Amino acid sequence: MANIDLSKMLMEIIDIYGKNKGYTIPTISWSKENMLSRFGEYQFWENHIYISNMFQTGMVSENALKSVIFHEYTHQIHREHNSAFNERMKLFKGYKACLKEMEEYFNGIQDFPDAKKSDILIDADQELAFCKLSYNPEDIDSYWKNYLYCNHCITGILPTDIPAEFCKKPIKQIVWLVESFKTMYVVGWSKDVQLYSTMKKYDLTEVW
Known about the structure:
Layout: H1 6-17, E1 27-30, E2 40-43, E3 48-51, H2 62-74, H3 83-89, H4 95-107, H5 124-127, E4 128-133, H6 142-147, E5 171-180, E6 183-193, H7 204-207
Parallel strand pairs: 1-3, 4-5
Antiparallel strand pairs: 2-3, 5-6
Helix pairs in contact: 1-2, 2-4
């Protein structure tokens, strides 16, 4: 495996293009599983950037890796690949060439590292919960704003209090859902979640 310092690269990106105003600098690491469908991913609920472990071989240039980091760092302020996102990506010199380099590398991959197995063993009746987030179709970001609440009721609403039985021990796995036009979408999951008996609310600028 190549010795690549992703955190150093992220800080170099921030030095060149500036810190995303109003947001906390994200953490960054290689993906734990074989990430083959995308080069990287910004998970806003963790404020963390994952870079595909397939790039950990040193087979692509440092500039190409930095382009992925810049891409995912831009997602912190632009969730979608919209005009504002595309305009910012133009700041990265040689971005299209980097994209071509990575696509050619991905298309030529023959050998895959062993994928890491999940260590989650749960009793679905006792340790798995599904939580539905409030969502306003007119506000595409409304569900992740609600996600930033400290607690979510298992029944899918955000109450003042959470039943005491859910606060006695950590729930091993929570699946977060959003319902839009009677269709349910999985938008995230959390491991080893501890719920609290009263709900807290965060200032978004403090969270990020």
